[in-house]
Amino acid sequence: MSFLYDEAVDGVLATHDKGVLVAELQTLLPDMELLHAKEDLRPFECDGLAAYRATPMMVALPARIDQVQTLLRFASAREVPVVARGAGTGLSGGAMPLEKGILLVMSRFNRILEVDAEARIARVQPGVRNLAISQAAAPHNLYYAPDPSSQIACSIGGNVAENAGGVHCLKYGLTVHNILKVEILTIDGEQLTLGSEALDSPGFDLLALFTGSEGMLGIIVEVTVKLLTKPQSAKVLLASFDDVEKAGNAVAEIVGAGVIPGGLEMMDNLAIRAAEDFINAGYPMDAEAILLCELDGAESDVIEDCERVDAVLRAAGATDIRLAKDEAERLRFWAGRKNAFPAVGRVSPDYYCMDGTIPRRQLAHVLKRIAELSAEYGLRVANVFHAGDGNMHPLILFDANRPGELERAEVIGARILETCVEVGGSITGEHGVGREKINQMCTQFSSDELTFFHSLKAAFDPQGLLNPGKNIPTLHRCAEFGSMHVHHGALPFPDVERF
């Protein structure tokens, strides 16, 4: 996609000769795999947002903490930028490498260190797959709640870096609500413990600060997660609507009725048809929108909640309501939703997945606005939502081989995010900012707020070497983007421009 590196990156790019750096690292770490040949670097050019690409100077694949410490101290001493990468499933360009930097791949830290059923926790390395945690906990009737659609592949370290969510985050929270402790390494190789196995710990809540920091503050080497007991019962209602706005309004009515579903998801007709063709989930192909509402807990409570939600849905205009008849059908309903992204990929050469969050009451209004933007720019948009918590994932369909379509997709995406801010929401819910949304950070935050963010970054990483050019824009960039007021032709707080 179209963007240029700004001074946040230019200011930290090393001028060292690649061959010299490779030779020095190989001498320092002879037992660590280090890729530097051009053909070996190609697979690491991007994360899940494949339109953002850059070939790293080198790729480090450590397997031990001491190797990471040595590498970070080396990078700090020579002022070489470092970008951390997990499974590479991120969707905001957050793990996109730098051409003059080291890409630090943590995928070999893939061991589950402990499952403590009595304490209901698990200690895991950052490269452990999200789903693998629940699989390891299953014999104890436990599971890990956050479940991104990519949970079969995404790693827990990446989940912490992006504060990932999933279809069950409405009731059970995001990653930040389901972890107790992380072990991190600073750019100087110092190991720090943030949080504890207790429910609270003294001092500032640095664990919450670190979660969602997108690799800008430190490198994760261990995570302690909370495990939950599997609910006694779980049932799913599938409600069909003949109007997208009615479905959007129904979401707010359900929560307003005092019911907190385990999951509350929405899909529009384009997403429904794509998912049904791909998965055969049993979705109604003629519906303009569907809601999937999962209710879990004690059997008697679930039965009562199903009756309450059924009544709310009918009052909201649902044309049909189906209760999954058994566990197999429940899983099939969810399989369609979880595979919506790859399903849409089968009906369009390319798509651009957005990630914004809005107040639930604004859902119908924002859906109408997305439809207007789709018509204005001549590109289809498939809407898939974590509707219960207002986390939207509009998929903008385009063909990069057709001149101008990529640029139009970018414009639609930017305007959707700006609409989210206008109605009191946020430019991201779980995918992070990365490179994708860095301009929209200028829309959401003031110069004072961005200055404070840079100060926090500098406290952990004074040289600005960890994942530079991502997440937090410089004030100069915001002035050029046109979303920040500049006083008398000069930027406020010029001292932060070096970060």
Average of per-residue pLDDT values: 93
Distance between the termini: 24 Å
**Structure summary, number of beta strands:** 19
Specify the biggest β-sheet: 8 strands, antiparallel
CATH superfamily (homologous) name of the largest domain = FAD-linked oxidases, C-terminal domain
Give the helix proportion (percent range): 25-40%
Structurally, the number of domains stands at 4
Known CATH architecture of the largest domain:
3-Layer(aba) Sandwich
Which percent range describes the beta-strand content? 15-25%
How would you describe this protein?
- The chain is an alpha+beta fold.
- It folds into 4 domains: 7-105, Uridine Diphospho-n-acetylenolpyruvylglucosamine Reductase, domain 2 (2-Layer Sandwich), CATH 3.30.43.10; 112-229, Uridine Diphospho-n-acetylenolpyruvylglucosamine Reductase, domain 3; 233-422, Vanillyl-alcohol Oxidase, Chain A, domain 3, CATH 3.40.462.10; 440-498, no CATH class.
- Helix content is 35%, strand content 19%.
- It has 18 helices and 19 strands.
- It has helices at 7-10, 18-28, 38-41, 65-78, 130-137, 156-162, 169-172, 206-210, 244-256, 269-279, 299-315, 327-338, 340-345, 363-377, 405-422, 438-444, 447-460, 475-481, and strands at 33-35, 58-61, 82-85, 102-105, 112-116, 121-124, 142-143, 179-185, 191-195, 219-226, 228-229, 233-241, 263-268, 289-297, 320-323, 350-353, 356-357, 381-386, 391-398.
- Strands 12, 13, 14, 15, 16, 17, 18 and 19 form an 8-stranded antiparallel beta sheet that branches. A 5-stranded antiparallel beta sheet has the order 5-6-10-8-9.
- Helix 9 runs antiparallel to helix 14 (363-377) and helix 10 crosses helix 12.
- Mean pLDDT is 93; it is low at 484-499.
